Amino acid sequence: MFAPQGPTFRELAVQALSSVERGYDLLAPKFDHTPFRTPEKVLASVAGVLGGLGPFDRGLDLCCGTGAGLDVLDKVCRDRVTGVDISAGMLAVAARAHPGAELVRADARALPLRAAFDLAVSFGAFGHFLPKERPNLFAQAYGALRPGGRFAFPMGAPARPGSPGHLALLGFDTAMRVRNAVWRPPFVMYYRGFGLADVGRELTEAGFSVELYALEEFGRRPDGSPRVRLVVGTKEK
């Protein structure tokens, strides 16, 4: 599951018993050697779709981590790109990989950047926010964009109930809830509650018009629906 350069079981256990911010500070030096980093196939597919919607000027990677999404922004944006994350450790790794990027340590729920960007992206971060926090999170993204700006992120189709993927997510979600019930500080990482219908409604309520693009590299399910979509919200002028 992990490359030889990745974290040990003990290191993962220490991270799991920390807060989200402290946990990622600890994991940062080895994060890119774990399966938690967004796969290159996803990044390339998203860049391909956004390339057809752009070009864009300024780009923002929301919850940028070690900077995987900055690679996408570098491909589709003409001006300097910016990454925001709450973890100083993750930003330190991103700074080494992307010396030309502007990196800002901030909580995505209270962004200090207003109406400055033409494109915002985010990869794999939404499970760190409780469902009740998402409306504000989407409002923050809306406020960071210029009129006509776009907010984009990939979403996989939900696993079929009873399938190995569904059971794995259910087990992980249950383990996290038990952990947070008996240990403080909490470590929020719940992905089963991030559904397309709720996300579309919350983006619309934040002021976005929403479009969905199939990431065809990942194929389609037996019913013909895409296995992975790119959700794109546009801040109307």
Automatic annotation (TrEMBL):
Keywords for the protein's UniProt record, in alphabetical order: Methyltransferase, Transferase
GO molecular function terms listed in the Swiss-Prot or TrEMBL record: trans-aconitate 2-methyltransferase activity
Listed CDD domains: AdoMet_MTases
The enzyme's E.C. designation: 2.1.1.144
EC main group: transferase
GO biological process, one term: methylation
Pfam families from the UniProt entry: Methyltransf_25
Residue ranges of every copy of the Methyltransferase domain listed in the record: 60-149
Protein name per its UniProtKB record: Trans-aconitate 2-methyltransferase
Organism for this UniProt entry: Streptomyces hundungensis
Lineage: Bacteria, Bacillati, Actinomycetota, Actinomycetes, Kitasatosporales
